[in-house]
Each structure stands twice: as C-alpha cells, then as structure tokens.
Amino acid sequence: MASASSWLGGEVMNADRPRWERRSGTRVVPPARPRNLTKVPFVELADGLLQGVVSSGSDIGRVYVSSITAGAHAYHCSTNNNRPCGGLRGSPCKHLQALVGEAVLQYGADRVARYLRVDLDGAASGTDLLTRLRGRHEPMPAAVVFSRFLRHLAYLELSDTTEPIAELHWFPAAGVAG
C-alpha cells in the first residue's frame, strides 16, 4: 500500500503539503546569503552552465552575458549583441569573476563547485573557485541566456496573485482525463 509520502524528482513529497506544492516539479531554493542585484541581476545554474547577466562597469545601458560550462570550464563573456568582452585576454574577465562571486552568494560555494565539477578543497569564495577552473575561452551565443533574463524580468513585473499563471501552469488540474 502506498504511504502518504512518495518519492518524486529527488524530493519526498508529503500529502499534508498544499495541493499545488505536491504537483509542482520545481523546488525554490532560498539563497545561501542575500546578494546585491545591481551588479549581477541574473545568475543561474542551468543547461550545464553557470550563466548570467552582468552589468557593465562603465556604461549603464550595457550588460554582458557571461557563462562557464560545467566539467570543461570553457568560459565566454559578450554583450547581449554578441560583441566579445574586451577583458577576455587568456583568462576570465571581471564580469566572469562577478558572476562566480554572485553564484556563490546565491547558491553557496559547495553547490556551485559540484555543478561545475570543481574540487572545492577548502575554497569558500568565488575567487577561490575561479582559480580552480582550468578551462579556456570558447565563444558561445548570448541570445539564450539573455532571453531567459528577459523572461525573468517579465515575471518580476507581474502583479501579486494567488491564481495560476497560464504560462507557468504546465500540469493539468486533478481529475482531468488525458
């Protein structure tokens, strides 16, 4: 006989939780520590990349899309128009440094290191983690990451509601035959 709890996607789902939580497949992880969104407004671990959007230090209207691949540690940084960052000269630029630092604040050093497949060996900061990467520069298109950032901004502009958001309502209502 099935118990009140079942295993789903690596997380034990409890029947005592609200119905929408039992059907949800994504768990929101609170940040390891609060971070300032001015310099790095968007950072995520997704699609085998540590990726995000970093504000330019010199032009308020310019942002850079920065990413590091998990495992190979290839890195890239360019404007959202695919113009390469001038700071990429054989090593990660200041935008990549800021991205890794903010990722450590958002997710914690252990989680970022595991995702990138880096031996942490006592490292606790983004700078420590960055020095352990052994990748090289490999150009990557910025469009996908920048689009995810823009979608993220669109969700932030929605008014507060307890009703389902059609775009995010992937699962059918209970009792619907399929």
What's a concise summary of this model?
The chain has helices spanning 19-23, 94-107, 109-116, 126-131, 143-156, and strands at 5-8, 11-14, 42-46, 49-55, 63-69, 75-79. It has five helices and six strands; from the N terminus they run ββαββββαααα.
Describe what this molecule looks like in 3D:
It is a single chain. This protein has 178 residues and is an alpha+beta fold. It contains five helices and six strands; from the N terminus they run ββαββββαααα. It has a domain at 42-156. It is 26% helix and 18% strand. The strands form two sheets. The protein has a four-stranded antiparallel beta sheet with strand order 3-4-5-6, sandwiched between helices. Strand 5 and strand 6 (75-79) form a beta hairpin. Helix 2 packs across helix 3.
Give the SSE string.
EEHEEEEHHHH
Radius of gyration: 19 Å
Counting DSSP H or I runs of 4 or more residues, the number of helices is: 5
Q: How much β-strand is present in the residues?
A: 15-25%
- What's the mean pLDDT score? 78
* Annotation, overall tally of beta strands: 6
Query: Uncertain segments of ≥5 residues (pLDDT<50)?
Result: 1-13
Tell me the overall shape.
globular
Q: Based on helices, strands and strand pairing, what is the structural class? A: alpha+beta
- Major β-sheet profile: 4 strands, antiparallel
- The proportion of residues forming helix, as a percent range, comes to 25-40%
Taking the alpha carbons of the first and last residues, their distance comes to 25 Å
Strand order of the largest sheet: 3-4-5-6
